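Why does residue order matter? Because the sequence determines the fold. Keep that principle in mind as you read this record.
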Amino acid sequence: MAQTVPRRDEAVLVHSSDLHIDDRAGGRAGGTAGLAAVLAYAREVGADALILAGDSFDSHMIGAAAVEHAGRLLAESTVPVVLLPGNHDPVAADSVYRRGGYEAIAGLAILGVTHERAVLLAGGRLEIWGNAHRDYRDMAPLDDPRPRTTRWQVAVGHGHYEPPETFANPLRPSWLISDAAIAATGADYVALGHWDRAAQVGDGSVAAYYSGAPAWVGTANLIRLGASGEVVVTRETLKLPATA
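Structure:
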């Protein structure tokens, strides 16, 4: 896939999730509005990659027009896009990725489809890895963390974070993410999806954040990974259309 010119001193990433692209049109939650907004923001800041951490599509039953429009937006991106299939849009024979011919889009890495688990970017200095949802059953989003072989490493997971005090009796029973699973990644940043709200989670040993759904929070996460190990995460406002 296409790679940006590596910066000497940092990697810059944009993280979003839960776009839930569907057949609707108009308004900040309609159709491909969220995708267009995060792509535009990633281009504006010259990101090394845009990470979409699951549920980019509301389901695999959306119509051909929405699939084609989203594909055009992704194909026109000047920023590499790393997409993790989530519980709404898992890897499947009838997925939108197969129907839309997304495997052929230059600069788009779909974990579990075009790349098994990991993508190298920024001149080989940045690895982004994640476990795609491959069906609608339960799975461990951050299972089997990859050893670090690059200057920077980012893990991507789509699931429900449960804190230690309730992990044995969780609020939600599936796709659970624990403090231990986050820490075990040893990554510079863990990009999470599945929650509509933005939040920092984990025990603080690894920077782990939900970006929240653009339609709900109106923001994306901007991540700067420095040469000396510093990780700076900010929430940045997206230019979304007004609610219809």
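Confidence is low (pLDDT under 50) at residues 1-6.
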